């Protein structure tokens, strides 16, 4: 039997499909990039594997795992290319999906648009049945009528059906009956029932999540089975895993059943990589910062753990406007995304001041300096003109940048209309985008109870390392960490992602009156459900379970998550649970109220398989002299002296362990450029990571 | 003359100021106790320069508070000579006439000192869910409505005035929550003050005033440029607001004068103040006049003193839109929310592309249900409800939102677990949107059953209502027709939609929120849009024919173009003057 020593990470993005091949024995990493093939994304997957084979012949047979992230699901929702889907719901509640929660996301904008529901009204059907809030049956499901409703739906030629009944999270009997009926009346038709997708209280959020799942289920299923078949045909005998939005990975079967859980599967990889670095280097407060062409995504990682939030939005009508999208209630890594990237456009605002972003020129036509038709000055143009980027070494020299055109653009579109000097304009663009990111970062960090003055910023993405120094100055952050090879840095997340799955059940009951045996039963059911899912990934491994409770003060609008030990629930006393709740509540919100009654809302299980370790590859140890790594000097803008000064240019590929030097420095690699001001020092570790210490007041 | 800032530096510092308030905002989200604050975001943080001119405000705030604060804080600050403020002073008040118009909105305000100099004031208003008193809209004066905290020092030179805390503690029903939330307000102000000083230090400034001048000036200029685009003139509109039986309806008269870049709103001729809680203080009236004008001329510009400069509001004292102390004010939204649509109606004549028709969510419907379970345990739940928004020249009205205020509904599953009631329906009402070239948003219907089985409550169940639109529907604009009226039925019989209703087990309550008004002549509506409305069930076949003159084939649900042409000709002849 051949040893399976390789693992392959594969991320299908909007423009590129990225590959990282890891040799677990040597720690060696190879990367590859090819254009995404929207018509059949598995084309690009095969092309990439073929491409990697040129360097590493026959690795396919020795491949243990393929870990896959994809934007397929989110694109289907944004472009409204999902299946024709029907909804079955409780009589009287056909419009829950359309009524939503009723918040106007832009209070002063009377023309604000709202997203249309994925299932139009004519495809939303009602059945006569009713479960009470405690799970008891008020009105039994009328099977006769249900069958008629299903027949009516089938006449509409739908490809998928969502079922979400009121209070079903307390008692799924009617939903399960409907599922069975549909399977009988229309064998093979895709069905999603809310109890299985998300058995959580709040009917709008649950319906929206179930409807979304149903909407993307047929296409996800088709794609994943095609991909598995294709991999098998080219000789892959290992396991295929899909990245979850929550930061774990799961089996193909689970992803196909609950595609709503893989919506954000792409961007989470950087966060997982960040978590890994946080634990590896023992950094307690880390701020992951991934800046690309259009957006900057960031996330606070405390003690090696990124926050996971229970809900997020997709398909926002106004891209960066909270509340303008469809609500999806599944666990997702707490990423903050703002419209700040290399392609962010600089222009004069209505107020006669400078405005940078959130509009972006994207990759096409792109910034002016790309010379492929862009006419609006962008952040990348400013970065070039400030001397931070080398016109001859962009993407390792693959693309020559047009400095003159960029300069002309900044002068004409920014400096002249604002009445400022060229230098003020060009620095202003760079500085303002940093200010925008810093403002968002401060709020994000404050919300999590963190402190920007102690975070280590980890920079990813093409523009991340260019702007990380400026961001750190604005946040007062003392340290930057730049992993080698900004692109791979985030893709490593595929290999370190926990193989974990989260399940939950809502059951609202006061602590004082709760039946602890009943709760134990819920936990056991959840464990069994999660174990079934994980056994599909690794039948032989031991599964580790974590239990937690979502609790709140009676009548309060939001919950607090309380982890509890995994032991017979009834062995825990009410006092013990109360103590744990108060402790966490106090830590989060500063004080607690021991006299106010508390209640349970959700019971949660995270089931996980043993973590797979990753040996980071070390860089060549042979000590060279630093002068060999110096490419020369370049005049670039210093934010401290407010003028151009000479920066030393280093070739990142020539740096070696324990190399140390001072700013002002620019460190160049193919995918990105690291800027280091004159008040900072750089240290290179065994793995080739750059540790940059800043001097802040 | 202080330093001037180039437009880039100015933008950077401006953003810093806004992010300071946003940080204070998230401090509230972290520390506030009540869910009204944490989830419904019913609070506003802001700060001013040392003259009390508003400089920055939290990005998300309800228009009622946010509009009232700029004005309110400026007046509050100048109640004392500026040189009497000392570092460590913190003030508190819930004077409805000073700020947001009812006792539940409590303001905490602190002067900010940098290098021993007064540089700013920071303030936040929280909507506290409890302020004591008799919770009802039919009180006769403000004394019945709860605890009135005048403008007093909560801290003096950093020392807590425990008497004030004790006074509050013994006058509210949930003291821990109220005091906890007041502490959260202090924390928010503290965050704001710290960050303002830090920002001054980092930028080598010793005061905010020069920065304030330029921010306010540019904002004002931007608002004025937009206002200047509409023709000068005097534009009038009037609104009728229904009252409980036996009382005269309230009239609001607005004369809006546009002169260059100034707008003067004169409400002379509006009804005198009333003897129940619907009275509106000047600031709250101002807030919704401001909402109208800001949404028309600068929806996307940051809120500060400059937005308000072009607007002058005249509201005679003693009228319902500028009530005198000690009028009852708890139900101010029932009348106050109408100000926005009245201004739209006046200015719509010259700026028809900047307004929407009347909305079914004006006023917001507020229902408070409470009673006792079979086991004697009390329960209590609040539902707020919006209706269809008015249509505009660009688009149909959105469905079921509160407007011009804002707020989230209560999930039915949460409501049912908090109460012994059963909700039988929450659905859109077909045909409720006012017909027009653009259709008004649909209203919604909710049906509540009081169970009479073993799950039911003890009688009676109390239902307190603040609402409107049961008599006068939301009007359309430019030939658009009104939306469907609101309804309140108990067992199928119209109930009293004001004040308190007592319900018994077995009863069924139906509440309809109104549809929005239409915009433009419905016979000019694209028949294919009507076809889609019929297919989705937003408009019935009959109404398509009757209101829009569009004949839809009942089998195929497609437009019958010939029949439509005939029908539209016939209807147009019947109604020759459609204006």
SSE blueprint and pairings:
The complex is a heterodimer of chains A (697) and B (579).
Chain A: E1 6-12, E2 16-23, E3 29-35, H1 41-55, E4 63-70, H2 72-78, E5 85-90, H3 96-99, E6 124-127, E7 130-131, E8 137-139, H4 143-155, E9 160-164, H5 173-185, E10 190-193, H6 194-197, H7 203-233, E11 239-243, E12 249-251, H8 252-257, H9 268-280, E13 285-291, E14 296-302, E15 305-306, E16 308-309, E17 312-314, E18 326-328, E19 332-333, E20 336-338, E21 344-348, E22 354-360, H10 379-385, H11 403-418, H12 422-447, E23 456-460, H13 464-475, E24 479-482, H14 486-491, H15 493-496, E25 500-510, H16 516-535, E26 544-553, E27 560-564, H17 574-589, E28 598-608, H18 626-629, E29 630-638, E30 643-651, E31 660-662, E32 665-668, E33 673-676, E34 680-684, E35 690-694
Parallel strand pairs in A: 1-4, 4-11, 5-6, 5-9, 9-10, 13-23, 23-24, 30-32
Antiparallel strand pairs in A: 1-2, 2-3, 7-8, 11-12, 13-14, 14-15, 14-20, 16-19, 17-18, 21-22, 24-35, 25-28, 26-27, 26-28, 29-30, 31-34, 32-33, 34-35
Helix pairs in contact in A: 1-7, 2-7, 4-5, 10-11, 10-12, 11-12, 12-13
Chain B: H1 7-31, H2 35-38, E1 43-49, E2 54-57, H3 63-77, E3 90-93, E4 105-114, E5 117-127, E6 152-156, E7 159-160, H4 162-169, H5 175-202, H6 209-228, E8 233-241, E9 250-259, E10 262-266, H7 282-297, H8 305-308, E11 311-314, H9 333-336, H10 338-348, E12 365-373, E13 378-385, H11 412-418, E14 422-428, E15 444-449, E16 457-466, E17 487-490, E18 493-494, E19 499-503, E20 508-512, H12 527-536, H13 541-548, H14 561-574
Parallel strand pairs in B: 10-11
Antiparallel strand pairs in B: 1-2, 1-5, 3-4, 3-6, 4-5, 6-7, 8-9, 9-10, 12-13, 12-16, 14-15, 15-20, 16-19, 17-18, 17-20
Helix pairs in contact in B: 1-5, 3-7, 7-10
């Amino acid at each position: 039997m051949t040893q399976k020593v390789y693992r392959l990470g594969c991320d299908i993005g909007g423009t590129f499909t990225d590959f990282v091949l890891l040799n677990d024995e040597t720690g060696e990493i190879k990367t590859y990039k090819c254009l995404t093939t929207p018509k059949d994304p598995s084309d690009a997957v095969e092309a990439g594997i073929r491409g990697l084979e040129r360097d590493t012949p026959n690795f396919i047979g020795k491949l243990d795992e393929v870990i896959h992230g994809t934007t397929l699901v989110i694109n289907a929702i944004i472009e409204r290319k999902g299946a024709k889907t029907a909804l079955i719901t409780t009589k009287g509640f056909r419009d829950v999906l359309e009524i939503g929660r009723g918040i106007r996301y832009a209070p002063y904008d009377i023309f604000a648009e709202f997203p249309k529901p994925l299932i139009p009204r004519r495809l939303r059907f009602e059945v006569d049945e009713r479960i009470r809030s405690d799970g008891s049956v008020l009105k039994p499901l009328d099977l006769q009528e249900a069958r008629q409703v299903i027949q009516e739906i089938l006449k509409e030629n739908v490809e998928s059906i969502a079922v979400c009944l009121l209070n079903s999270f307390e008692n799924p009997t009617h939903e399960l009956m409907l599922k069975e009926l549909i399977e009988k009346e229309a064998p093979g038709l895709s069905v999603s029932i809310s109890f299985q997708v998300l058995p959580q209280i709040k009917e709008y959020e649950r319906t929206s999540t179930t409807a979304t799942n149903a909407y993307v289920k047929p296409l996800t299923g088709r794609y994943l089975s095609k991909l598995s078949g294709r991999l098998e045909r080219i000789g892959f005998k290992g396991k295929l895993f899909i990245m979850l939005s929550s930061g774990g990975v799961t089996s193909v079967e689970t992803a196909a059943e609950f595609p709503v859980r893989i919506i954000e599967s792409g961007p989470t990889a950087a966060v997982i990589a960040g978590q890994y670095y946080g634990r590896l280097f023992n950094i307690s407060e880390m701020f992951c910062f991934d800046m690309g062409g259009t957006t900057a995504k960031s996330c606070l990682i405390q003690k090696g753990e990124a926050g996971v939030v229970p809900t997020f939005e997709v398909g926002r009508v106004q891209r960066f406007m909270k509340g303008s999208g469809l609500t999806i209630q599944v666990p997702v890594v707490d990423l903050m995304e703002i419209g700040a990237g290399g392609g962010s456009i600089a222009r004069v605002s209505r107020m006669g001041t400078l405005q940078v972003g959130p509009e972006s020129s994207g990759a096409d036509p792109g910034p002016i300096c790309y010379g492929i038709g862009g006419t609006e000055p962008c952040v990348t143009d400013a970065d070039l003109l400030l001397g931070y980027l080398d016109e001859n070494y962009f993407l390792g020299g693959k693309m020559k940048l047009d400095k003159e055109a960029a300069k002309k653009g900044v002068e004409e579109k920014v400096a002249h209309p604002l009445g400022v000097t060229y230098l003020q304009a060009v620095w202003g663009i760079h500085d303002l985008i940093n200010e925008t990111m810093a403002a968002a970062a401060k709020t994000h960090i404050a919300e999590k109870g963190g402190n920007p003055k102690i975070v280590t910023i980890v920079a990813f993405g093409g523009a991340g390392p260019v702007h990380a120094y400026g961001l750190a100055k604005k946040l007062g952050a003392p340290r930057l960490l730049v992993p080698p090879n900004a692109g791979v840095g985030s893709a490593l997340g595929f290999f370190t992602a926990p193989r974990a799955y989260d399940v939950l059940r809502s059951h609202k009951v006061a602590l004082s009156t709760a039946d602890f045996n009943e709760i134990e039963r819920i936990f056991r059911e959840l464990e069994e459900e999660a174990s079934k899912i994980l056994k599909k990934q690794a039948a032989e491994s031991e599964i580790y379970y974590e239990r937690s409770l979502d609790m709140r003060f009676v009548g309060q609008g939001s919950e607090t998550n309380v982890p509890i030990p995994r032991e017979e629930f009834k062995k825990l006393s009410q006092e013990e649970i109360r103590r744990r709740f108060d402790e966490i509540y106090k830590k989060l919100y500063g004080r607690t109220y021991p006299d106010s009654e508390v209640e349970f809302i959700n019971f949660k299980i995270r089931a996980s398989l043993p973590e797979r370790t990753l040996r980071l590859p070390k860089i060549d140890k042979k000590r060279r002299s630093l002068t060999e790594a110096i490419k020369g000097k370049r005049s670039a803008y210093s934010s401290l002296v407010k003028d151009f000064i000479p920066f030393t240019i280093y070739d990142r590929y020539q740096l070696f362990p324990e190399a140390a030097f001072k700013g002002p420095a620019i460190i160049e690699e193919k995918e990105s450029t690291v800027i280091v001001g004159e008040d900072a020092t750089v240290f290179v570790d065994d793995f080739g990571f750059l540790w940059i210490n800043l001097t802040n007041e | 003359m202080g330093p001037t800032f180039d437009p880039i530096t100015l933008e950077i510092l401006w953003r810093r100021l806004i992010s300071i308030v946003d940080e204070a905002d998230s401090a509230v989200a972290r520390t506030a106790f009540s869910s009204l604050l944490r989830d419904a975001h019913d609070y506003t943080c802001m700060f001013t320069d040392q003259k009390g001119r508003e400089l920055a405000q939290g990005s998300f705030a309800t228009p009622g508070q946010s509009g009232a604060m700029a004005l309110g804080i400026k007046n509050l600050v100048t109640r004392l000579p500026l040189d009497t403020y000392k570092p460590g002073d913190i003030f508190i008040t819930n004077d409805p006439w000073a700020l947001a118009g009812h006792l539940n909105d409590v303001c905490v305000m602190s002067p900010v000192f940098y290098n021993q100099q007064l540089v700013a004031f920071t303030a936040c208003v929280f909507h506290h869910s409890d302020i004591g008193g008799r919770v009802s809209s039919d009180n006769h004066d403000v004394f019945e409505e709860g605890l009135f905290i005048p403008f007093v020092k909560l801290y003096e030179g950093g020392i807590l005035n425990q008497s004030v805390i004790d006074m509050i503690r013994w006058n509210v029903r949930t003291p821990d929550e109220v005091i906890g939330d007041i502490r959260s307000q202090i924390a928010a102000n503290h965050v704001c003050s710290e960050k303002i000083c830090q920002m001054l230090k980092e930028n080598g400034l010793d005061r905010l005033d020069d920065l304030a001048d330029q921010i306010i000036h540019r904002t004002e200029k931007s608002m004025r440029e937009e206002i200047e685009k509409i023709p000068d003139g005097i534009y009038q509109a009037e609104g009728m607001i229904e009252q409980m039986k036996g009382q005269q309806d309230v009239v609001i008269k607005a004369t809006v004068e546009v002169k260059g870049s100034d707008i003067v709103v004169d409400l002379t001729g509006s009804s005198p103040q009333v003897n129940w809680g619907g009275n509106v203080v000047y600031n709250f009236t101002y807030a919704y006049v401001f909402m109208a004008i800001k949404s028309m001329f600068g929806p996307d510009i940051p809120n500060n003193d400059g937005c308000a400069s072009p607007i002058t509001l005249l509201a005679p004292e003693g009228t319902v839109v500028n009530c005198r102390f000690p009028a009852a004010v708890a139900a101010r939204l029932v009348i106050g929310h109408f100000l926005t649509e009245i201004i739209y109606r006046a200015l719509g004549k010259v700026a028809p592309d900047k307004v929407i028709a009347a909305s079914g969510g004006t006023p917001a419907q507020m229902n408070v249900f409470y009673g006792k379970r079979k086991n004697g345990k009390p329960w209590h739940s609040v539902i707020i409800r919006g209706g269809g928004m008015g249509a505009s020249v660009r688009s149909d009205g959105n469905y079921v939102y509160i407007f011009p205020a804002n707020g989230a509904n209560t999930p039915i599953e949460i409501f049912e677990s908090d109460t012994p009631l059963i909700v039988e329906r929450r659905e859109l009402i077909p045909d409720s949107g006012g017909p027009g070239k653009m259709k008004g948003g649909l209203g919604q219907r909710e049906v509540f059953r009081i169970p009479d089985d073993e799950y039911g409550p003890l009688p009676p169940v109390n239902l307190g209502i603040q609402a409107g639109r049961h008599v006068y529907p939301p009007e359309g604009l430019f030939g658009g027709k009104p939306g469907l009226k609101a309804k309140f039925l108990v067992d199928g019989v119209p109930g009293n939609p004001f004040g308190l209703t007592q319900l018994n087990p077995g009863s069924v309550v139906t509440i309809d929120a109104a549809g929005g008004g239409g915009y433009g002549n419905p016979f000019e509506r694209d028949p294919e849009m009507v076809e889609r409305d019929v297919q989705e069930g937003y408009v019935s076949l009959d109404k398509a024919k009757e209101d829009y003159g569009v004949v839809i084939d009942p089998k195929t649900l497609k437009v019958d173009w010939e029949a439509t042409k005939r029908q539209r000709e016939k209807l147009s002849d019947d109604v020759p003057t459609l204006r």
